[in-house]
Design a protein that fits this description.
The protein is about 75% helix and about 0% strand. The chain contains 22 helices and no strands. The radius of gyration is 24 Å and the shape is globular.
């Protein structure tokens, strides 16, 4: 009797599985409503278009430009609102100072480690040694060198640049550091007023919900933007450009992989969460950055995801926006490796003390780089201008492949800032995973829940 029941049950399960598979409900089903799937498809279509129709692919860059402009449209007010709400809701000014101090200290330690690991790997692998500088057609770098000259990177100029002439002007220009400065001042003043400021904070919370609603609308355009960006990259530079400077690219990607797995992985383990599960959780944001080469494109959604992950709104609102100016780990790795690569390519033999000096300059210049494509290149030109032993003209060697490496550094920046938010939340006992939304597993709905 038992055998008959088992047989009947097994037959029923097999029949159920076959029926589901026939309806497309099996494990192999792709949920085309899932943003991850849509972005992957967009990237693949972009590669095909750029390879087969390079001229048309180059013209599609406008799709990515429109998307990034739409995202940048809401970034400044979202950063302002989230920081003010976060600090205002804390109430305790000592707590604000404590979180801010821990955040900046963490950023400085991790970004310095990123610079150091970049210098170590590039000196071990020596991708620029024996490089024929005539084999790469030098491009016009005047655009970057001129912008670098106009950008002051001294300590006094850097501090003065943080303070805006007026807040409206900083908002209009989307200048993140001045917005951060004013937002912190506004939040501290609101926290100091206590209950008097609660109506204002509540009003700001309602406005913030509207802006995040705008982000959700804009995000529906992200697969098309990813397609346009990838079509432009392949169409403009060609897949062949990947091989001309392949050793440097491989070195940069390897270094960033090691940084994420070893450095960030160790930090994550130290604070009780798994780096690989965390990366899986933010996979949609990573794919979006991969498509657009801009970590700013994922900033609003990243803040929402981290709150769902368990980080408090106040910590997310303070750490993530600050990290976009002070914790650019991928950019730091790129700057250190690119600088030494150019020196190696031109046969410039730097002493250990010269490299330490270069490291000190990079620690300053890397802090002001924003998360938008091209800013890393301008910062590199500014760094070399301040370090005359390496010819600034050498950045022409990187013009063809900078776009490909910008994706790696933007993704590393994104993951680094996400890890920083979780770490600071845990430091402050502001991490409450039991309060996050219960989301079904990805295989059923394509959403993002993952265990810590």
């Amino acid at each position: 009797m038992t055998k008959n029941l088992n047989f009947i049950f097994l037959s029923y399960k097999i029949n159920e599985s076959v029926t589901k598979y026939g309806r497309g409900e099996g494990l192999l089903k792709l949920n085309f409503r899932n943003l991850t799937v849509q972005v992957i498809i967009g990237i693949l279509i972009g590669i095909i278009i750029g390879f087969i129709f390079p001229k048309f692919g180059t013209d599609l860059k406008v799709l990515a430009d429109i998307f990034i402009k739409l995202i940048k449209l809401v970034i400044a007010p979202i950063v302002f609102l989230t920081i003010v709400i976060g600090i205002g809701n804390m109430g305790d000014l000592k707590k604000v100072g404590r979180i801010g101090g821990k955040t900046l200290l963490y950023f400085e330690i991790i970004s310095t480690l990123a610079l150091v690991i970049g210098l170590v790997v590039v000196n071990i692998l020596k991708p620029g040694s024996g490089f024929n500088t005539d084999s790469v057609k030098g491009g016009d770098v005047s655009e970057f060198t001129e912008q670098a000259k106009e950008t002051s990177h001294g300590a006094i100029e850097f501090i003065m640049g943080i303070i805006p002439d007026n807040f409206i002007g900083a908002m209009a220009k989307g200048e993140l550091l001045p917005i951060l400065f004013f937002s912190v001042l506004f939040g501290i003043a609101a926290a100091g007023l206590g209950q008097k400021a609660k109506p204002v904070i509540s009003f700001f919370e309602q406005i913030a919900e509207i802006f995040f609603g705008i982000v959700n609308i804009v995000m529906k355009f992200s697969p098309i933007a990813a397609m346009g960006a990838m079509a432009y990259t392949i169409g403009n530079f060609g897949i062949g450009s990947l091989f001309s400077l392949g050793k440097l690219m491989a070195s940069v990607y390897l270094t960033m992989f090691l940084f994420i797995v070893l450095i960030l992985g160790f930090v994550a383990k130290l604070y009780g969460f798994n780096i690989f599960k965390f990366i899986t959780y933010i996979k949609e944001e990573i794919l979006l950055v991969l498509g657009t080469s801009s970590s700013e494109s994922a900033l609003p959604r990243m803040m929402e995801k981290l709150e769902k992950y368990g980080c408090s709104k106040s910590v997310v609102g303070l750490v993530i926006p600050t990290g976009y100016s002070f914790n650019l780990d991928g950019t730091a790795i790129y700057l250190s490796m690119a600088s030494i690569f150019i020196a190696q390519a031109f046969g410039v033999d730097l002493s250990i003390w010269q490299e330490i000096t270069l490291l000190g300059i990079l620690m300053l210049t890397s802090k002001g780089a924003a998360g938008v494509t091209g800013s890393g290149f301008i910062t590199l030109a500014a760094t070399l201008a301040a370090f005359p032993m390496i010819p600034v003209e050498g950045i022409a060697l990187l013009l063809g492949v900078d776009r490909f490496m910008s994706e790696a550094r933007a993704i590393t920046n994104l993951i680094g800032n996400g890890v920083a938010t979780v770490v600071v939340s845990k430091m402050e006992n502001e991490f409450h995973p039991e309060e996050r939304f219960d989301i079904p597993p990805p295989s059923h709905s394509g959403s993002d829940k993952v265990s810590v």
